[in-house]
Amino acid sequence: MVKVSVIITTFNSMRFFPETLESVLKQTFSDIEVIIVDDGSSDGISDWITSVVDSRVVFHAQSNQGVSSARNTGIRLARGEYIAFLDGDDFWAPTKLEQQVRVLALEDEVGLVHTWLALMDEESRLTGRVMKPQSEGAIWEEIVESNMIACSSVMVRRSCLDVVGIFDSALIVAEDWDLWIRVAAVCRISVIKDPLVQYRIHPSSKSKRYPEMVEDFRTIIERAFQSVPYDYLPIRNRSYGRVNLCIAWKCIQAKEPDFKKADFFCQQAINHYPNLRFSREFISFSIANTLMQLVGMKSYVWCLSLFNTVRKIFSRNHALSPVGHSS
Fold it and tell me: Which UniProt keywords are given for this protein, alphabetically ordered (predicted)?
């Protein structure tokens, strides 16, 4: 038996994967097994993995079935009391597992612990932005309204998954949000307020799948509210408002922005949750959407890059240095 099973899923992420794996093998907490699930890659990872000499590493290859299926494969193979997830292009700070194990060992009511994240771009450059979720404890009402937990930051008790189940492989988006909602319904959640994960931001590749996204979000929300007391139902409208705003963001962040659809989903968001118009997320979206249409994508990206550079300078003390990578 091992204390922690680390499940790394990968699909054609060989460009980043050696650093990802290195960040796990260099953890200060070493009572781990590392289960790598390759979801049908064609980038030569199965050949490369033979060069890894570490008895803690297990490699499993499967045909391409999606990230949820790959994570579920890892869960079925896992032997650990705790399970931690990592995408094949993200990195961990050396003490990430140690700090999370400490939380779960000391707080029996906590079923899941996650961390803050430092965001980086496709070239492994830190953007200067750190995602800082604050909510912890019994947070079902908060997480059902908006997902604030990134999968690469999560450590969860295996016993908790035995109760609530695993990832829904039928979902094409937000499969992690669906699982965290179920976990939060039965366990307390904890957050380590330190950016122990470097999380990679990619341009959206799902720009033509809006109908499927809408259906998946609807499935998740209706599942969450199917048996709650009547007093909780107003939260459902807020959930629909935020997921529509999320889709609007994806419309303008796609490689080929669709501003018409973005405006449609933005209006749907306000229809469901009128007060959302005063939120930071809505104001940020409105500014980004307007600038993209006024100055064009290239100029907007340049302005955003300049803004992120300035922000990086001011937040240098909070940024996480890449593991095995010089910035």
Answer: Transferase
Q: Which domain holds residue 258?
A: 210-314
Clarify whether residues 133 and 168 are in a common domain.
yes
Scan for tokens 């604030």, then name that residue: 148
Question: In this structure, what is the dihedral angle of CA atoms 291, 209, 305, 287, given to the nearest 10 degrees?
Answer: 30
- Helix or strand holding residue 97 (H, E): helix 96-106
Residue with tokens 């612990």: 113
Residue with tokens 């033979």: 50
Comparing CA positions, the residue from 200, 201, 148 lying closest to residue 174 is 148
Burial class (CB in 10 A: 0-12, 13-18, 19+), 280: exposed
Distance CA 306, CA 299 (A): 11
pTM, to two decimals: 0.88
Q: How confident is the model at residue 1 (pLDDT cuts 50, 70, 90)?
A: confident
- Position 325 in a domain: no
Q: H or E element: which one contains 162? A: helix 158-164
* Segment 245-297, tens digit of pLDDT: 999 998 988 778 889 999 999 999 999 999 999 999 999 999 999 988 888 76
Are the C-beta atoms of residues 146 and 162 closer than 8 Å to each other? Answer: no
